[in-house]
């Protein structure tokens, strides 16, 4: 299994090729050095790709999301004789302290500050967890002090960050609401139009303005065919997963069950 092997890439989407090459580089490093390698934080789609690639080798692979209830994960690739130590994931948990009586931090505020204002790469940190009046974030251990020293405000809200033991990780609060739709095809613009009850032209505009992500990556083509299990993140509207296909209606339309996901 080497970079450039068409057999490797044909099972994945064209826009995933760059990520696959990074995965193959990591695999080659482990095979050459006999030492484990740890990725940055990956989204679930990326984790699935990496696991499938490693499973074609004689190496072992561990995702931190199998041990901590998180959406994003760091993945450890190792020789088969390696015994997992959770500390090798090098994940730190930081908790925000701020005046909760008069302020309320949101996921969008925090994400916007980290990426747009501070220029922090999305792969450096994992889940942002908000529950029970608390806010936590998972970060790469070697970046924990940087976060603590450089994040003093989220918007206009003064904050401070303190490291906590991972045993105090907040549970994910995920809610799913089902909706059944009828569509004439699997095209992205057709499905988005039905999910959001918009005209096809408005659905196309959302895609063309790069307001739609498919499985965490930009959806570039309005004609992209979707499939069961795909996750759509639509700016201003939320996240939707194609949960099930339920056959055809009497008129020949495709019956789908969509889940709206909120946290």
TrEMBL record:
Keywords: RNA-binding
Residues covered by the RNA-binding S4 domain: 186-248
SMART domains assigned to the protein according to its UniProt record, in alphabetical order: S4 (SM00363)
CDD domains linked to this entry: S4
InterPro entries cross-referenced by the UniProt entry: Nucleotide-bd_a/b_plait_sf (IPR012677), RqcP2_N (IPR048443), RqcP2_RBD (IPR040591), S4_RNA-bd (IPR002942)
Cited Pfam families: YlmH_1st (PF21278), YlmH_RBD (PF17774)
Keyword RNA-binding: yes
Full protein name: RNA-binding protein
Species this protein is from: Streptococcus caledonicus
